[in-house]
Amino acid sequence: MGADHTRPAPPTPPGVRRILIATVVPLFLATLVAALVLWPRDTREADAGTEPPRYHGTVTKVVTEPCPPTPEAPGGGPATGDGPCGTVTVRVEQGPDSGQQVETPVPAGPGAPEVAVGDEIILVELTDPADPSASAYNIAEHQRGEPLVWLVALFAAAIVAFGRWRGLAALAGLAASFAILLTFVLPGISAGRPPLLVAVVGAALIMFVVLYLTHGVTAQTSVAVLGTLGSLVLTGVLGTLATAATHLTGYGSEEATTLSMFQADVDLHGLLLAGIVIGSLGVLDDVTVTQAATVTELAHANPGLTRGQLYRSATRVGRAHIASTVNTIVLAYAGASLPVLLLLTADSRAATQILTSEFLAQEIVRSAVATLGLIAAVPLTTALAALVTTAGRRGGGRAGADAPTPAPRPAAGRTDALEALSTPRAGTTAPATPGGWPDRDRSTDAGW
User: Fold this and answer.
1) pLDDT tens digits for 370-390?
2) How far apart are CA 335 and CA 30, in angstroms?
3) Contact 199, 274 (CB under 8 A)
4) pTM
5) Residue 274 burial (CB < 10 Å; 0-12/13-18/19+)?
């Protein structure tokens, strides 16, 4: 008979579990205390006094016509306006004019929506300052609520259909991530708290909730948590040093400059560091979970591997993972900044001046710091996982001392009997994993 690789991995020794609990629980409690201290209590509410009313409407008629000539034309003659020109009839669905038909001009200008009969749109009510009783409607944009709901429903259904209970847990973790960002990180930064500290605490809180909720309360998950937390702190330190060395101010984008006008007390330099930390978290937990699972599976497939062999084998997997992830990080930052990059290509300045400008320099720092933190996560998590996986072996994982004694080969006549004993009886079910998910994933069987 060959080796049975479908059996669950042996449970983590009690001593190792106690060490992990003594390490992870204080870190979790410290994160909770820091979150309570930094929690925003004096958040300012948005001033909606200057925002014009917005109502839903449905387009019932569109009439286009030639645009009138403009007085200033090349060559001195009249010229047709840019357009489009005409009127749009809209049935108002909300507000004081609900149910009535109103006429609005055809949207024109850069980025103006193109409307057709049956489109659901957003109307903006504009009031004449000289005569508050006189108002008119303009089309602002399309309603996007219904297609977004269908897209999110398809997204959730695909995750649950493929991942089943794990997919459902992943959706719960995603909801928890957004809840922490919207209730703690963003309000905390808006309230004037140190952005880098808020980002590190918020990312740690997200990490604890998402990893344990998605992968179960196991020793393997705890290793991934420790590796992620260490890499997050290192990313924050490297980001601080890199932004100081390159003299970045945080004013490298139009959005940051606009934010400084509305909220002058926000530290834009700290906000830049916070963005680096938050942006690194999603890739970091992917790498750390993969490395912890790789070590567990290697040790399960070949119990004779020493601690050093496990580390070297899993590190080779990590190198392949990092090689593809680095490209992902750079392309993600480039894709988010594509319009500005296109604008810079039309710049008449020298390439060296463009590359060292505030905007591009901050994107280079983002990519470089995130990648350095990612690279550090591989050896850190792999070493922790190899240490935890081999901690219960006799001889502490040294070569030759931890290799199990080969079991005697059963006689041919006893093979069927042994197979019968190892086969579950009819009507029995596989035990649930320590994380509570009813599946046979070996990566969660060696839990607390």
Assistant:
1) 889 999 999 999 999 999 988
2) 36
3) yes
4) 0.73
5) buried
